[in-house]
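Q: Could you fold this chain for me?
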Amino acid sequence: MEKGEEFRELMQQVFRTRMAFRRSMQRTLKRNKTGITFEMLQVLSSLWHEQGITQQELAARICKDKACLTSLMNNLEKKGYVCRKEDPNDRRNKRVYLTPEGEEFRRKIHPILNQAYAQAERTIGLESIGIIISELKMVCNALENV
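A: Sure. Below is the predicted structure, expressed as structure tokens.
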């Protein structure tokens, strides 16, 4: 095996795992008729943790480019879940907030997400999850210092 081949395989598996998670969550969202996509869920989830962040911060957190985020934001605004407000310190920036409808949606979808995560946890097992988290943190730290 060539040098670096094992590492390439590791990174491919991380990517495949992320895509499998995305597909699994997309099925959950569709099955429960939530009316949102996985990408919209990423935006909402970020806002559930911290509101009033700029669109640039939001794009970085969900690993989307500005054009993609703008489209997601437009769709979420149409649904009434988010609003954008001008940043009083820098009028070029928009800050993103949940609306009352977005907060209500959170209350409705939270049990659905908890159930999906609990099912995955039972399937994979807590011990395996702990080991995987530890190993992925080690890989992340190593890559940050390369």
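A (continued): Helices lie at 5-31, 38-49, 55-62, 66-78, 100-124, 126-144.
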